[in-house]
Structure formats: C-alpha cells, structure tokens
UniProtKB/TrEMBL annotation:
Keyword list, A-Z: ANK repeat, Repeat, Signal
A UniProt-annotated Pfam family: Ank
Lineage, broadest ranks: Bacteria, Pseudomonadati, Bacteroidota, Flavobacteriia, Flavobacteriales
Transmembrane segments: none
PANTHER family registered for this protein in UniProt: PROTEIN VAPYRIN, ROLLING PEBBLES, ISOFORM B
SUPFAM superfamilies: Ankyrin repeat
Sequence ranges of the ANK repeats: 58-90, 158-195
Protein name, as recorded: Ankyrin repeat domain-containing protein
Signal peptide: 1-20
Length: 221
C-alpha cells in the first residue's frame, strides 16, 4: 500500500513539474534579466532565440519593462532586435506612450525612429504628448510637437488636448509657459475648449496664470 501511495505521489509531482515548460522558464528568465538590467544576459538570450516581445503576466513586453525602469541601453538593445514599441500592456501602456508620459526624450526619439504609431492611445485615450504636457516635460513636448503629422490637438477621454492639460493641470511656471509656446508655435488650436467649451485662455485666467495668459492673448497679434 505504501508503495502504491509513493508511486501516486511521484506521478503528481511529475505532473506539476511538466506544467512549467522550457518556454515558460525561458520567458521568466529573460524578464528577470531585463528587470535586473543585465545587458549581456539579455543579449545572449536573444541571440539564443528568446522572443524579444516576451511579456509578463500584465502583458508588459520587455521593452516596456526597460522603459518603466528607465534603462536606456537595455531599450536600445531590445529595439535593435526588433522589439515592438507599440505593444500595449493590460493597462494600455506601451513603451512609446510611457516614454512620453515620463519625459524620457531619448527613448521617445528612438521609438519614433522605430515605428511609433500615433493612433495607439493610453487608458485615458491619450497620446504620448498629453501627459508630457501635464507633467512639464519640455524637451519631450518639443520632440513630439515638431514631429511631422503628430496629432498635436488630439483630445483624450477627459475632453482635453495637450494645451488644455498643460494649463488645467500645470502651475503656470516657466516649464508650462515654454510648453504652451511650443504647442502654439507648432500649430496647436487655442480655440478648442474642454467639454464645457472653456478654452485654455479662460482656464489660465481662472487660475491667474499671468504669463500664460499673455502668451495665449498674443497669438496671431
């Protein structure tokens, strides 16, 4: 009887081990290597055939993980091996969208040069530009706003453009003044209002953002 029980136990344990396939282990390993910023380890894994678009349990691909960790060299390596800059996680983040939102200008440039799409949006139906405007990332805004055909006046789920977000959620300081100037210089439509029809100028007046009021008032003068 004891022998029978032992055989059954071994069979159950063997079945559990079999559920973890070599592919699962390889995926887990390369995700760990990326998170540890182990450049050489990741390079070796990719050269050995690891999938450059491996995802974790939140559907975050390796490139998004590198971007989340601000690991620029890792991101460059992954892009060189064909990583998808537009692949979205469960929360709809992508490497390109997150790079814009977090002000990682070098990565924004890299992703633009490697197929970044302008019709892929985050969970707020926002572009890479809108959160960059909100958070005062001047150089990132400059890169995106000057990119040919970039949707500078895209409206997110809240009813805001990048310009509206810079005024409504910004504090009117120098960075936000510069962002407003960049957007206007690159064709942003200051007449677009929020869901209630309130324009950026009207919001600036309500918030007493003196310098931004001057900038917006002087448009087309």
């Amino acid at each position: 009887m004891k022998n029978v029980l032992m055989i059954c136990l071994i069979a159950i344990l063997s079945s559990c081990d079999a559920s973890t396939t070599p592919t699962d282990m390889n995926a887990k390993n390369i995700i760990e290597l990326v998170n540890a910023n182990n450049i050489n380890g990741v390079k070796e894994a990719l050269e050995a055939g690891a999938n450059v678009n491996t995802t974790d349990n939140q559907n975050r691909n390796l490139l998004l993980l590198a971007t989340l960790n601000s690991n620029t060299a890792m991101a460059k390596l992954l892009v060189e091996h064909g990583a998808d800059v537009n692949m979205q996680a469960k929360n709809l983040d992508s490497a390109f969208l997150y790079a814009g939102a977090s002000g990682q200008t070098e990565l924004v440039k890299l992703y633009l040069a490697n197929g970044a799409r302008f019709d892929v949006f985050n969970r707020y139906y926002g572009s890479a530009l809108i959160p960059a405007c909100e958070r005062g990332h001047v150089e990132t805004v400059r890169v995106l706003a000057t990119t040919p055909n970039y949707p500078i006046d895209h409206i997110n789920r809240l009813g805001w453009t990048g310009l509206l977000e810079a005024v409504i959620l910004g504090d009117g300081s120098k960075n936000y003044q510069e962002i407003v100037n960049i957007l206007i210089e690159n064709g942003s439509d200051i007449s677009i209002g929020d869901r209630s029809g309130v324009t950026a100028l009207e919001h600036a007046k309500a918030k007493r953002q003196t310098k931004i009021i001057e900038i917006l008032t002087n448009v087309n003068k």
